[in-house]
Amino acid sequence: MAFSGALTLTDLNDYLGPSQACIKPVNAPAYEPTGETEIAIDNGGVYETGGARERTRLETAQISLNDCLACSGCVTSAETVLIGKQSIDQVVEALASSHSQMAFVATISPQSLASLAVRYSRPDGSHKAELPLDVLLRRISRALYAIGFDAVGDTTFARALAIREHVLEFRERKRTGKGAIPMLAGSCPGWVLFAEKTQAELLPFVATSKSPQQVAGLLAKLVVGKTLGRAPGDVYHVTVMPCYDKKLEASRPDNTLDGVPEVDCVLTTGELHDLLWQHNFDPYTDEQAVTSVRATTSAHTELAFPTLIAQPGSSSGGYLFAVMHDVWQQHPDAAIESREIRSSDYTEYTLHVQEGEERRVVFKGAICYGFRNLQNLVRKVQRETGVRGRGGRAGRGLARRVRGGAAAVDDVPYDHVEVMACPGGCVNGGGQMRPPAGQHVEAKADATNAIADTGAAADAAAPAPGAAAAAADDSFGAPQVGWQGTSREWVSLVDRAYWADKTSGINTKALADYAPGTLDLSAVDAELSGRMRTTYHGIQPETNGLAVQW
Fold it and tell me: Mean pLDDT over residues 106-114, rounded?
């Protein structure tokens, strides 16, 4: 079927790369042109020769994360963007050069642990079952202690605090009218960057409660640092995340403590794997013979926080579930209905109570994963709220906040949406582990479309960089192939490992059974008071039509 000219110019892929050439200017010293220039390449680098100038080494152009945040040329980050920080090298350098006062803290996301657990299941059958996440966390912690870290934990306690703040913000918006409805979850930096750069009119709808990563940063700098006797500036905090965009989130000027970043470095799941393998990590033994890169390693500190706290709802944090549970507590007789819009990546949920012969909707929300679904969501929110898009086109009119029993459910606007940029959610983040090389080709043969029903196309014709090397080396240390090379089946395995025996899904039984912990958080709350919210900044486009790469 032939597409119109407008459609052929549109990128229908969920994974949006930079759509324009980078606009960052490159500064170079002025000199008189000589008319002739030659470039010489040797093992030491690239040099400009010839003419009256001396042989001059050409510096490699670098783009920092702050440059990306200030630029309006890209929609979201991509692996191929050159970044000078937030890498394994930065962590290794910090460990090797740190003074004795610096304390190193690492927090690992449960999605990363699930991805590693599945990847470390050997395909030869000697380890058919995935490693339990608590066992894997303990073994990774011991390896990181040996490398030079002082404290290691996971992000689920920080997530519990972030979700509590998220629910509190929703209550404030609904009961006091402060803030726009529907409230859109803001824990996904890919979605936040998309909104800031292309849909700034929707920023008032985005939740300002901080993400689990940034709450973990507050805990590391203020609570763990205090336990270790360190000031926030003397704590080096590393997080392990399933997503490259988390590196950009950590670089936001808003996420600092008086100029000190809450998170100093973000490693993806694959980068943690590479770091551990550089130091002889063995996931199948508790005894780690790891080579330390730190001259003196102090005794590690066991964190007082609970680990691997379950959060029902979704493997992307469970934000919608938490908000629905809060509403359900006010209406314990309410029933849940769900409806898939396009796929499980875009599903609506409603809570309704029966009043005589009529049914009243008390809450309507949705989960929306993947940029293709996200664009549909943006249009729906604009239509329901009447906000104008950046192009000047208004919605079709402000929707009525219908709650009458006779109204169709479709006429009821959203109250809350859990938004994630990645198809399949956080377990399918761009920084996650990919199948072993021996399973890579099989996965592509079984699924021509990586996440077919959400529009993420796999490029079967062109192997991803590193695929040839991975095919030759099926060891755990083989290079990872990045975004391409995954499959629906692989993501399902990671999702299953994430949940293990815990409750998943959104249903009436899950709401009734859910009982948030009753920990004494007074000490933590005292440290984090007034620091649990962030701000967003719409970026004005500086589009130059001549810069568009068709």
Answer: 96
3-class DSSP state of 497 = helix
Dmax (CA) of the chain = 92
Return all residues near 46 (Cβ < 8 A) that are at least 6 apart.
Answer: 39, 40, 57, 58
Which string of b and e fits 177-192 if b means at least 16 CB within 10 Å? eebbbbbbbbbbbbbb
Calpha distance 211→207 (Å, rounded): 10
Q: How far apart are CA 96 and CA 465, in angstroms?
A: 30
For the stretch 299-341, pLDDT in tens is 566 677 888 988 889 999 999 999 999 999 999 999 999 999 9
| Both tokens assigned to 178 | 């402060």
**What is the rounded CA–CA span in Å between residue 300 and residue 152?**
8
Q: Quote the DSSP letter at residue 515.
A: -
Phi, psi of 267 (to 5 degrees): -110, 140
Question: What 8-state DSSP symbol labels residue 340?
Answer: E
The size of the chain, in residues, is: 550
Contact call for residues 337 and 186 (beta carbons, < 8 A): no
- The pTM is what? 0.76
Strand partners, 153: 107
317 contacts 143 by C-beta, under 8 angstroms = no
Whole-angstrom distance, CA of residue 58 vs CA of residue 218: 41
Token pair listed for 112: 């990363």
Whole-number Cα distances in Å, 406 to 133, 355, 358, 412, 414: 48, 11, 7, 11, 17
pLDDT tens digit sequence for 197-210: 888 999 999 999 99
Q: Cβ distance 87 to 106 under 8 Å? A: no
Q: For the residues 176-196, what does the mean pLDDT come to?
A: 91
| Helix or strand (DSSP H, E) at 107 | strand 103-108
Sign of the CA dihedral running 148, 151, 154, 158 = negative
Number of H helices, E strands in the chain: 18, 14
> If DSSP codes are grouped into helix, strand and coil, which group holds residue 206?
strand
Residue 33 vs residues 30, 276, 533: alpha-carbon distances, Å? 9, 50, 53
The answer to whether 186 touches 207, Cβ cutoff 8 Å, is yes
pLDDT digits (tens, 9 = 90+) for 243-256: 988 998 998 999 99
d(Cα 22, Cα 68) in Å, to the nearest integer? 9
Kindly state the percentage of the chain with pLDDT values over 90: 43
How far is the CA of 351 from the CAs of 180, 317, 343, 419, 509, in angstroms?
A: 20, 20, 20, 19, 13
